[in-house]
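Hey, can you fold this one?
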Amino acid sequence: MGDPKGFLKQKRRDVEYRPVCERIKDYNEVVVLRTGEISRLQASRCMDCGTPFCNWACPVGNYIPEWNDFMFKDRWETAYQLLQATNNFPEFTGRLCPAMCEYACVLGINDDPVTIRENELDIIERAFSSGLVRPVPPGKRTGKKIAVIGSGPSGLACADTLNKFGHNVVVFEKSDKVGGILRYGIPDFKLDKQIIERRLDILKKEGIEFITNVNVGGDVKFSRVKKEFDAITLTGGCSVPRDLKIKGRELKNVYFAMDYLIPSNMYVSGKSLPEDLNANNKNVVVIGGGDTGADCVGVANRQGAKCVGQIELLTQPSECRPETQPWPLYPMLLKTSTSHHEGVKREWGILTKEFIGEDVVRKISCIRVDFSMKDEKGCSVMREIPGTGFEIDADMVILALGFIHPENRHVVEETGLQLDDRGNIKTDSRHMTSIQGIFSAGDMRTGQSLIVKAIADGRACACHIDEYLFDRTYLSEGKIK
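Sure. Predicted structure:
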């Protein structure tokens, strides 16, 4: 512990963002990377507490107190080595993770928690700029060949870990570029796509093969892939959206969030944008209050929307930790993202009743709802509040209501893989599906979740695949470098 009184000397310094008036004119990242000295002082706030609940709360189990200590001591290379030991892609989580670790920080009990996510981002960006992150191909190959189907965070983490074990890994991606949700689901202002390319360049040089524009189970028979590989892991995303089947749903200009975000992200990469997906000079309403909805708000503002609104069915969350979600649990709090600061009218407790228009949507009919009543089981019951109906002008409606399950129809039809009650690929405790030699990880196995959890699941799946192939685990033998 470099400075036992660091948390008394230094106050939390939150992340800095580019000015709103500047950033809404482009798609460059909104975060301003901070200097090493600021990070070093912020790292000194870590108390090196006896039980690091930050480590407990982190899905990948980051050695947070340890690398904070090395940061403060200017031992950045050692900090990077510890960070990379548990997290394949800290440059992604350092930008996109909701920082569950910070809500479990012991300092956060009676003070502001340590800036763990920003510290993590500074470590990895400093490592890249100083040449510490470089290709390190495995010294020996096992001769085993594994197919990873899906190149999102889970698939990439699984492939990277398997490759480090010495296996030959081929990643199949149905889109034209690798990255899954990182590529086309996350706007560039949150994750510049050069950050993905930078990492992919290293993975390719380390020996991982990537094949794009191939939909296994669709374009290519799954049985063909199964014959060519010793093991397969399914890591597709949770892509089937939750719909809002109300009157007027058939009207034009009512889109699912991903049907709006993907073409918009492709436009930033140089492709054309269909005119009906351009929010310029339109009244845009986003239905759904989560992160995906916030991303749609940010994109609509950058496209020059006349007005952007966001409505959510549930009651507005508290800004303070609820008594029912005490430390160190991750609380359900009001989240205000950078996109919200760029211009949006947010409302909670709103039920969408009908889309109104002739051929094209023009208005939304809504009513306010209350969840204060409970049923016999103590669960909240939604009740429409009489006399609170109203309409919202809407030239474009974006449904950001979450996802129900992965798109796995082709694979399931061909193989007969079992699904769980939610429509996800069913696996045992070792990530193996109902067919021997076929594994699954990430959203395809667990349902919609966080990028950091997908990375953790991909890493775990890789270890189980290695155990299956050789009846051992390199991880327990300390052979992951």
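The chain has three domains: 6-129, 145-239+404-470, 244-401. Let me know if you want another pass with a different chain boundary.
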